[in-house]
Design brief:
heterodimer; A: 486 residues; alpha/beta; TIM Barrel; 2 domains; ten-stranded mixed sheet; three-stranded antiparallel sheet; 19 helices; 17 strands; globular; B: 66 residues; mainly alpha; 2 helices; elongated
Chain lengths: 486, 66
């Protein structure tokens, strides 16, 4: 609540001893532009506030944080800091703000759609150099989800939602590789597509795209969320990393599938997994897809997803660890390349811990309460009849939370564990000042894959401002100027 | 505290914002609070991600999207 000025004066006078509380979630970032060294960026993801200020304001925040005197601070500034959530009247007020934001988050979650991951098979027709499923030692049974098994998923979902919120849901095809050419592979995908058509259920797929071209007709007319397809560089680079088991390269077939998907209006999420061995080829890939006109498509039809090669850093591929690049290193390198390469520049819209959202939506992201939705917003149905909290646990029945075939059962105790984990950041993240920007770690990464390292949150946010600030200022500040009465 | 969803912050201002902003070089990098309710676009993200909330809900883990 806003305080009137007499209250602020009173607060100011007593702040040195026991008064104002500076939010520990405020990040102070640099404006890395020549001549702007005296300016700083204040960003508080809990409060949703982001401002450029003179560095003197940072001094005042420090004084509040260190319980020093505030002689030079004026009431108007304190009022601003209070209004924007950089400062609270006391610790309890910030705790209350956390509760309020968390409740808003829970309400958004309740309204959100539920992701049912249909893992029709764990077989794959590629042998990628960095496959996390292989590196994690996943058991790949030679089983397939049959139409009969698929039909039993309804019974599991009914049981699951009985004591929980009923939610909208959508299907995500996942593997292994879900779009394989075999007769039985096609039969189950056609069965899922028929269900989606009949009940208007949105469908998406994470596919390697090798047979996407042949499947496009199956998906025609459906509400497709997106097809996530990974291409790691121009043909020779991509084919060396994503080897097809039939001995033919996968690149041409994948690109053909993407092309047809675009013709059919299916949104494509074009993922590029990046490490030291392919980063120099990313501009060439950008040029290829730019020539095809894909970079001119609206983002809801074609988007780029840059990803680190997590398998290299964490999954026991010790010999290749030197090729791993941390996200911020990837972004800095590509940003330099974008300065001299027009297609790369056109393609490069990195995510940067959500700072991109400040540019696209005009507001900072909502505070993040947890980064893992396993067992709460997603369930993975394996070809073995087990239900897993998410796709990372597929093939490890000891981590299942129940079964959907041949019998329907739920391990309520195990499921509650995930529900509990969902309601808070992972333990080691709980006290981190940056948690509302990061969200904490993915639970299976902590428990199973040992890929849970801190992602250089502040560096990524700083990079986000370095990259997007000129664009943000140009767009929003010029719009504000236009709004001002003459 | 402001209320980002109701846009009520501007109505509650009890100090001369223009003067304070000028004195301390303050500039907001967000749209005005009254615009905040307009962001309701539902984004659907997949892979290791949360299901659709709204555009400002970051629903992808940092290993997949950087």
């Amino acid at each position: 609540m806003a305080k009137d000025l007499s209250q602020v004066k009173e607060i100011k006078e007593t702040a040195a001893l026991n008064g104002l509380h500076a939010s520990r979630h405020t990040m102070v970032l640099d404006v890395n532009q020549a001549g702007r060294e005296h300016e700083k960026i204040l960003y508080n993801p809990l409060a949703g506030s982001v401002h450029i200020v003179n560095s003197s304001v940072v001094g005042i925040l420090d004084a509040i944080r260190n319980k020093q005197g505030l002689g030079a601070a004026d009431n108007g500034l304190l009022q601003f800091l209070l209004d924007e959530g950089y400062v609270y009247t006391d610790q309890a007020a910030e705790t209350q703000k956390e509760r309020v934001e968390y409740e808003k988050y829970r309400m958004r979650v309740q309204d959100g759609a539920f992701q049912l991951i249909l893992t029709t098979t764990l077989k794959c027709n590629l042998s990628c150099t960095y496959c996390y499923q292989d590196a994690a030692g996943m058991h790949r049974p030679n089983q397939m989800m049959t139409p009969e098994m698929f039909e039993n998923i309804d019974a599991f979902v009914d049981k699951y939602t009985k004591d929980r919120h009923e939610k909208r849901f959508y299907y995500l095809l996942y593997g292994g590789e879900p779009l394989l050419p075999g007769e039985k592979d096609r039969e189950i995908i056609e069965r899922v597509a028929a269900e989606c058509r009949m009940f208007d259920i949105p469908l998406a797929a994470v596919t390697n795209g090798v047979h996407l071209y042949e499947y496009c007709d199956v998906f025609k007319g459906l509400k497709i969320g997106e097809f996530q397809v990974t291409v790691d560089g121009p043909p020779e680079i991509h084919n060396a990393r994503k080897r097809a088991l039939d001995g033919q390269g996968s690149y041409e077939r994948i690109m053909k599938g993407i092309e047809r998907s675009i013709e059919y209006g299916f949104p494509i999420n074009f993922k590029i997994v990046i490490d030291r061995t392919n980063i120099d080829y990313v501009p060439e890939l950008a040029e290829i897809i730019d020539r095809k006109g894909w970079l001119d498509l609206p983002e809801d039809k074609f988007k780029i997803q840059l990803a680190e090669n997590a398998a290299l850093s964490c999954l026991g591929k010790a010999a290749e660890k030197d090729n791993y690049m941390r996200p911020v290193e990837i972004l800095r390198t590509l940003s330099e390349k974008a300065k001299t390469h027009s297609s790369m520049n056109k393609m490069f819209r990195p995510f940067c811990m959500g700072i991109r959202v400040l540019y696209t939506a005009g507001m900072p992201p909502h505070p993040r309460f947890g980064a893992c939705s396993a067992g709460v917003l997603q369930l993975a149905f394996g070809p073995d009849g087990y239900v897993y909290p998410c796709m990372v646990y597929l093939g490890f029945p000891e981590h299942s939370i129940g079964s959907y075939f041949p019998t329907v059962s739920i391990n309520e105790e195990e499921l509650r564990r995930y529900e509990d984990l969902f309601t808070r950041h992972t333990v080691e993240c709980e006290t981190c000042d940056l948690k509302y920007s990061c969200g904490g770690r993915c639970i299976p990464s902590v428990e199973k894959l040992n890929t849970a390292k801190c992602p250089d949150v502040k560096e990524l946010v700083q990079f986000g401002f370095d990259y997007y600030l000129p664009m943000i200022e140009e767009r929003w500040l010029s719009e504000k100027a236009k709004e001002k009465p003459q | 505290m402001k209320d980002a969803d109701t846009g009520s912050k501007e109505e509650k201002k009890e100090y001369n914002e223009a003067s304070v902003f000028a004195r301390y070089g303050i500039r907001s990098l967000s749209k005005s609070t009254t615009d905040r309710r307009k962001v309701t676009k539902e984004s659907v993200a997949f892979c290791c991600s949360k299901a659709s909330l709204d555009e400002r809900d970051i629903n992808q883990c940092t290993q997949c999207v950087i």
